[in-house]
Amino acid sequence: MENVYANVDLELSQISAKKRYQGSTDPSEHTSMPLRRMDSACLARTLMGLLLSALVAVCILAILYFNNVNSFKTLHEQYDKLLMKEDNATGCKKYGFCEEGWKSLGVKCYYFSTVKLNWTQSQDHCVEKGGYLVIITSQTEQDVISTHIWENHWIGLNDMQTEGIWMWVNNEPLNATGVTFWHHHVTGQYEPDDWKIEDPSGEDCASLGNGISYINNWFDASCRKLKQFVCEKENISF
């Protein structure tokens, strides 16, 4: 008999506990686990979105970088082919390297100064370093040099001997090279204009650029002005 009463009491207690659970008004008892699962899902989706955005940004930057690198590489390859063509025409081929401080572009070495000197001092400085102010003889060479400068630089061109007769530092006349890159103003004027307002003696020396603009064009300027400059020489053969 005692066992019967014990079983009845156990069943009643289980039924009471079940009713208490079903009749509970605390929402946390029923929703805490689903809410935690929803919060985790939202966080995962947010992190995934941020990750995808970062990957897209990295891809865009990589594309821009490689486009610039390939464009610059193509320019140098064109210059190398041009210089190789010149070597083949003379029946010889040069291989070598440049000294420290000089940039190797094709079969030539170029020195881009950081100091500013007048035109004569610039030429003397280039000679001391075993070269001379740069002589530009092609569109490709002009473009390659322009990509390395951010303001105007002296080049090896002047008409100091005879006004209007422009000569390179190797005594070759400008018209012998067949290329010129004088700047043409929107007003219709063009370089060289031998402007005498700043220097009564005129403008007898040529530079790449004018101030910090038009660095891919030539301007005549007073030889007394202080500018950076570009030297060139052949590379060291081995």
UniProtKB/TrEMBL annotation:
Q: What is its main location?
A: membrane
Keywords, ordered alphabetically: Disulfide bond, Lectin, Membrane, Transmembrane, Transmembrane helix
Q: How does it sit in the membrane?
A: Single-pass type II membrane protein
Q: Which residues form the C-type lectin domain?
A: 105-232
Q: Where in the cell is it found?
A: Cell membrane
Q: Would you say which domain of life the source belongs to? A: Eukaryota
One matching Pfam family: Lectin_C
Q: Which SMART domains match?
A: CLECT
Q: Membrane-crossing residues?
A: 42-66
Listed GO cellular component terms?
Answer: plasma membrane
**Entries under InterPro entries matching the protein:** C-type_lectin-like (IPR001304), C-type_lectin-like/link_sf (IPR016186), C-type_lectin/matrix_domain (IPR050828), C-type_lectin_CS (IPR018378), CD209-like_CTLD (IPR033989), CTDL_fold (IPR016187)
* PROSITE patterns, per database record: C_TYPE_LECTIN_1, C_TYPE_LECTIN_2
What GO MF annotations does this protein's record show? carbohydrate binding
* Entry-linked SUPFAM superfamilies: C-type lectin-like (SSF56436)
Q: Which PANTHER family match?
A: C-TYPE LECTIN DOMAIN-CONTAINING PROTEIN, C-TYPE LECTIN DOMAIN-CONTAINING PROTEIN 180
Q: Per its record, how is this protein called by name?
A: C-type lectin domain-containing protein
Organismal lineage: Eukaryota, Metazoa, Chordata, Craniata, Vertebrata
